[in-house]
Write a structure and sequence with these properties.
heterodimer, A: 292 residues, alpha+beta, four-stranded antiparallel beta sheet, globular, B: alpha+beta, Ubiquitin-like (UB roll), 2 domains, five-stranded mixed beta sheet, 5 helices, 17% strand
Chain lengths: 292, 158
């Protein structure tokens, strides 16, 4: 690994000015698990690392019945998974966080770092998009808020400006009839990264789906909502046939990637299976295979 | 490039040392403190042989910088037992055949130790989930899981 200077600013303003000055020669470090891997493999060779670990404004998880959930960007995946607030109000988010990568990475990697890295084969972005989360970006110029769909731009690319850091992630307060489910599929149990993931967040009463946000990720360059499947589910009593048809739409409508981890055809097939099971399980339909 | 004075507590002993920014935690433990129980395996965060406990949580020391551990309490495999007295986990790994070549064992011991501290009475599935960041190429994992279940029982005082 190439040598570098390690900088530890103590305020957002100081961090932002450092980042503006150093530009492309520096990288921001939160937990560091992804950054260290990229640097050890010489995919990145920054001359400076700006650690944001001392920015206390980026810490903490809080919930308010009106404003919803605030997750500080430096919250680790294990913090999200174990938070009683997240478990109580957003069980799909807590369950997702408990499955990211492996225990060691969950203890080191942060939700903010995960979003900024924008690796397609990961879990949090899909789940957060289904929950209509927003990302707060902060710099010495002030703050701005982006929805997940604006924040994620492409394969490893986000809308973050060079002098910005992610301050927090906000999730709207759930309605009384909210329910959700997140499912990831791996080819083998030894894999740490999902090949496909599906996040579904709905408003429902019994079998009736009032509104749905259906997101497919990991087999797409960035997670994407499937508008036609969402419109199809809205207002319907969800049966096994409805779940299967919505899953067919998801499989057909996504922009599927094809690479060494899985061909486009294989990925579309797995999206169909995972989407169908996710919908079926959320709507308590008769057992439709095991959770993939 | 930049150097940093870091103060850490390793296996109960306070250590202060100047390290270059690029020093990995695994290299700091092995090369600077000569605690060679922690193994370097894949060095890409996959195999878990370098697992150590930092402030109560198991992490991969090949993916963290030493400077990130400034102010932290670190436990390595050398801190598990005391002198000739083995930790119950070490006894169980011996008793149940939880190792063959042994290279991955320090990592498994540390991941198991952190797992049992948080969940003293785990199910087999919880043990497998808790050890999913560690690879073993010899045992096929069955005896490793048995070792941890056996140690959990001992540590609960049964």
């Amino acid at each position: 690994m190439r040598d570098f200077d390690f900088l530890q600013p103590t305020s957002i303003d100081e961090a932002s000015r450092m980042l503006a000055e150093l530009g492309d020669d520096c990288r921001v470090m939160a937990g560091g698990s992804a950054l260290m891997l990229a640097m050890r493999q010489r995919m990145l060779t920054p001359t400076h690392i700006v650690s944001i670990a001392r920015l206390d404004a980026l810490r903490g998880i809080s919930f308010d019945a009106r404003d919803g959930l605030r997750i500080g960007a430096l919250s680790r995946h294990c913090d999200v998974a174990r938070s009683p607030l997240v478990q109580q109000h957003y069980p799909m988010l807590a369950a997702m966080a408990a499955q990211v990568a492996n225990p060691q990475v969950r203890h080191q990697g942060t939700i903010g770092g995960n979003l900024c890295y924008a690796d397609p084969a990961t879990d949090p972005p899909s789940c957060l998009m289904a929950l209509d989360a927003r990302v707060t970006l902060a710099s010495s110029r002030g703050e701005r808020v982006l929805g997940m769909e604006e924040f994620l731009v492409d394969y490893y690319v986000t809308a973050i400006e060079p002098d910005e850091v992610v301050l927090d992630i906000r999730v709207p307060a759930p309605s009384a009839d909210a329910a959700g489910r997140y499912t990831r599929f791996r080819r083998t149990a030894a894999e740490h990264r999902p090949l496909v993931n599906v996040a579904l967040s709905v408003r429902r009463s019994g079998a009736r789906c009032h509104e749905a946000r259906l997101v497919v990720g990991a087999s797409t360059p960035i997670p994407a909502r499937v508008a036609r499947a969402e419109a199809f589910l809205a207002g319907k009593a969800v049966t096994a046939e409805v779940a299967a048809e919505a899953a067919d739409i998801a499989s057909a409508d996504i922009l599927a990637v094809s690479d060494s981890r899985g061909s486009e055809d294989y990925r579309r097939d797995m999206v169909r299976v995972v989407a169908r099971r996710t919908i079926a399980q959320l709507f308590d339909l008769a057992a439709d295979g095991d959770t993939p | 490039m930049s150097k940093h004075l870091i103060a850490v507590t390793v296996n109960g002993e306070a250590q202060t040392m100047e390290v270059p920014a690029r020093r990995m935690l695994s290299d700091f433990l092995r090369d600077d403190l000569h605690l060679t129980g922690t193994k370097r395996g894949c060095e890409t965060g996959t195999c878990g042989a370098c697992s150590v406990i930092v402030d109560g949580e198991v992490v991969k020391s090949c993916l963290s910088l030493a400077v990130q551990a400034d102010g932290c309490r670190i436990t390595t495999v050398e801190g598990l037992g005391s002198g000739d007295a083995l930790h119950p986990l070490q006894q169980s790994f011996m008793q149940c055949g939880g190792l063959q070549c042994g290279y991955c064992t320090p990592g498994f011991l540390m991941a198991s130790c952190a797992l049992l501290a948080r969940n003293p009475d785990p199910t087999v599935d919880e043990v497998r989930h808790g050890l999913s960041g560690n690879l073993c190429r010899c045992t096929g994992y069955t005896q490793i899981v048995e070792s941890v279940m056996n140690a959990a029982e001992k540590m609960r005082g049964n």
